[in-house]
Structures are given as structure tokens and as C-alpha cells.
Amino acid sequence: MSYERANIRRMQGYTPGKQPQNADTIKLNTNENPYAPSPQVFEVLRHIGPDMLRRYPEPLATEFRSEAARLHGVKPEQIVAVNGGDELLRLALTTFVEPGQPIGVLSPSYSLYPVLAAIQDSPVISVTAGADYSLPSELAARMNAAAVNLTLLVNPHAPSGRLETRETISGIARELKGVLLVDEAYVDFVAPDRRHNLLPLLEEHDNILLLRTLSKGYSLAGLRYGYGIGSEGLIAPLLGKTRDSYNVDAIAQRVATAALRDQAHARLSWERVRNERTRVRRALAALGFAALDSQTNFLLASVPEQLRAAEVQRELEARGILVRYFAEPPLDRSLRITIGTPEENDRLLRELAQLSAP
To answer: Residue 298 belongs to what H/E stretch?
Structure first.
């Protein structure tokens, strides 16, 4: 006998990227940072004592929130710490969406969004992105017409890497009648010359919630630590009502705070990723794999006409390289490739050269 709720029984769970089976496999399928975390992280870990494990952690992650507020020029009351960015997504649904009320997404997008909606028993109002993965002009109107109270947008966009401007995001927030959660998981990799910064919008719009994570830009995917930034009114119920008690552990709080403080180390890794992103994109184009301009740590590359993306993905895996393939159109002609180290990228390019050779 099944004891699941009916909507849980019907739904499909999230499918994570494949994990390597041996140490020689190059993992370019889950958008991790290829470079090590800050040395200050390991210094913190060396000083973890038994009392830190014996006692409950600081419940509100006060030190971390103060550090994040200082970094971003906001108040600590505008920050909520979470157990990975995915927890903020779940918190936003349980806080701002009535059971059965719809949520809004762009399609294609992060595949966890509809999974979380299904858990909440919420229908999904999906608006298809433009051919260039741009936001359609009718997005906000569609959400308002469907009484959507939470719209989820990842920017820079996944899986394309496209970056929407502050003006575009501001216009959507102004028109929306509900909360706009902007998932900025990849924002650290945006080129500095874009001068991209959504934080000033928090003073103009009380319905914007920004998601940040330490998984990508700070090389801490294994830690599971993120945070939300928004107006005090938007953060207060997350912080004081719907957040799990002691939701981020004591070690994670210390490690995350140390990582944020070492901005010099983090920015160096972002620059290295951006440099490799430019090089790999050009090399892929020379092989016939046209990659979209990306402001993330990955590229969405279409395969040459004579090849099938699914077959290329399987062949690369057989040769010890993992990349991501999505079977749903319009992504089924492309591969999403995480930017690795120069050595990893060189090996990928050599294998693709062999696979695409006439």
C-alpha cells in the first residue's frame, strides 16, 4: 500500500547530473567550479572543535548574515541563510504560494522548479523563452492573468547562459503583482564590463528576492550553502517563520563566512573561468559546435548537423568525460558543457575533434 499524497505519487523527482565512476573521469556536467575554495576555508576546518559539534548552531547564522550584508551593502535583516540555494526555492514556495496556487517559470529553465511546484501541488504557468532564450514581453502579464504569486527566473539563464539586464528585470518586477525570485546562482561569472548588479533594485521593488549560492562562485558545492537577499518585509517571514530551525549547521556557517571574506581568492577563480569560457567557446566554434554567448560557468553548444547530441554525450562518457544532455526540444540538439580547468578543457576539445572529424 502506498501512503504518499496523490500528487507525490504522480510526480517525477529531480534528476541530478551523473556522478563519476572513477577518479579519472572529467566532470563537466554539473556546473561546479573547477578551482579549489579559499585557503581560509581550510583554516576554519582545521579549528573545528568538539563543542562546535556538540552544541546547536547559531540559529539565525548571524555572523554570516552580517558578512553578507557588509559585502552587498544591505542590512543583515535583508539576508536569510539557507542550506543550499534549493532550500530558498522551497522556502519561497511554502511562504508565498498557497497550496494549489500556480507558480510561474520560463521554459526551458532549472528543472527543479516544476519538481518543487509538484510537491506543493501547484500548477506551473510556463512561458516559452524566445529563440535566443530572451524573456518574452508578455511574461508578467501572463503571470498576473493566472494569479501567480511567485515567479522564478534564473539570471544568468540556465541552460543558455544568457544575461538579462537590470532594466529588463526591473520592468518585470514593476509589472508583476507577486514575488519575483531571481535565481542568481551563476552571477559571479558575469563579465565585469557588463556592470551587472541587481542589488539597487531592492530599494525600488519590495517584491524582488535574489538567490545567491556559494556552490558555484566559491567552489563549495559540497557544502550546500546559499542565501537570499530582499526587502526586510520579504525576508522576515522566511527568517522567522518558515525557515527550518537551525537550518544551516555550525561548520557550514563558519566555512561560508570565511569564503565570503576572501573575495580576492574568489574573484581570481571567476576570472580564470571567464578566460577559459572565451577560449573554449572559440575552439568549439572551430569544430562546428556553435555555443551561445554565456555569462555563466558553462556553455550551451549545438552539435554539428552530421552528429546527434545524445550520441556525442554517450561517446564522451565512454571516453571518460561527462557533459549534460537534455532530451526536450529545443535543447535536444545541444550539450551543456561546464568550464573545467585548461587541462580538462583541452582533453574535451581533443575528443570532440575526433568525434566530429569527417
So the answer is: strand 298-302
Nearest to 210 by CA among 89, 32, 64: 89
* DSSP β-bridge partners for residue 182: 153, 210
pTM of the model: 0.96
**pLDDT digits 0-9 by tens, 142-164:** 999 999 999 999 999 999 999 99
Q: 26, 344 in Cβ contact below 8 A?
A: yes
Q: Which residues contact 54 (CB under 8 A, 6 or more apart)?
A: none
Q: According to the model, what pLDDT value does residue 17 have?
A: 87
Domains contained in the chain, CATH given: 17-37+264-356 (3.90.1150.10), 39-261 (3.40.640.10)
Q: Is 304 exposed, middle or buried (0-12, 13-18, 19+ CB in 10 A)?
A: middle
What is the C-alpha R_g of the chain?
21
Q: How far apart are CA 79 and CA 225, in angstroms?
A: 13
Burial level of 65, CB count in 10 A (0-12/13-18/19+)? buried
**Strand 298-302 to 334-338 pairing:** antiparallel
Q: What letter represents residue 152's amino acid?
A: L
Q: Strand pairing of 179-183 and 150-154?
A: parallel
